Amino acid sequence: MTFVPDARLFDGHFDSAPILPGVAQIDFAIRACTASGLQTTPVTGLRDVRFVRPITQRGPIDVIVAAGRAPGHISFEIRAAGQVATTGVLVCSA
Amino acid sequence: MKDVRDISSHDVATLVPHTSVARFLTGILSMTPNAIAATGAIPLGHALVSHGRAPVFLAIELGAQAAAAFEAITRAQRPDAVAGPRVGSLVRIREAHFHQASVPADTEISVAAELMGAAPPLAIYRLTATIEDTVVLTAVISTHAGPAGGIA
To answer: Which residues 49-88 in chain A show a CB within 8 A of chain B?
Structure first.
């Protein structure tokens, strides 16, 4: 699933070198998860979210979601400019 | 947590590099050698605010800013201190628990960031965010100080 982040998400984060905040990436992961149909209950937590590369571009980002290893866990990967930026797990309520 | 009254006089703009709607931190309540208590709010104008409410996980960002302030204050107390906020990174959310789905914007959130361990430039903090004594989020995060120190 592809998203184009709202340019306002970069405002003030940071003036010298804008990057997409990690919490904004979490929002995209949850939206992708919801749209995929994998999530049937509310997201109530996160596990092992790793921000491996800052997203500095204001172009599209790709979010890939898949059923996780544990019940209620959904793994996600966010790519920007073709490179993995963030990986993690959304935890949904039982 | 020991009360450090002079901390309250700090202008948060000198502690974190965030500006405009990205700056959630509004004040420092107290600080010890390994923890900080602070206040903040999600600005109504933030892009993720809808119908006056924000996703609760934005409190992780507030916690990271509190951790940044903790490091800035700690850094300023060193003999070789260089003043001013410095950009660093939130590199990992080890775990987070959402106790509710959203929080009201423009409403005071209290946050505590406890330093659990550090191997500079990496540090681990346990975060607890509350609104009117109700816990809304807990999390454990890892941060990486920027080239000259600090957290973003």
So the answer is: 49-52, 54, 88
- CATH number of domain containing B10: 3.10.129.10
* Packing angle, helices A22-36 and B58-76, rounded to 10: 160
- Rounded to a whole number of angstroms, the distance from the CA of A55 to the nearest CA of chain B is 12
Q: Provide, as residue numbers in chain A, all residues whose Cβ is less than 8 Å from the Cβ of B94.
A: 47-48
Residue B73: inside a domain, yes or no?
yes
Q: What is the CA radius of gyration of chain A?
A: 13
Is 0.80 surpassed by the pTM of this model? yes
Nearest to B20 among A6, A12, A44 (CB): A12
Contact between residue A80 and residue A53 where contact means Cβ atoms under 8 Å apart: yes
Tokens read off for B33: 């050698």
Q: Identify whether B44 is part of a domain.
A: yes
- Say if B152 falls within a structural domain: no
The half-sphere exposure of B74 on its side-chain side, counting CA atoms within 13 A, is: 16
Give the domain CATH number at A87: 3.10.129.10
Number of domains in chain A: 1
Tell me the per-residue pLDDT of B105-128, one tens digit each, with 9 for 90 and over: 999 999 999 999 999 889 999 999
Segment B72-82 shows an average pLDDT of 81
The domain tally of chain B equals: 1
Q: What pLDDT, in 10s, does the model give residues A19-52?
A: 999 999 999 999 999 999 987 789 999 999 999 9
Residue B130 located in a structural domain: yes
Q: Which of B18, B60, B97 sits opposite A23 (nearest CB)?
A: B60
Would you say residue B3 has pLDDT above 80?
no
Burial grade of A58 (CB within 10 A; 0-12, 13-18, 19 or more): middle
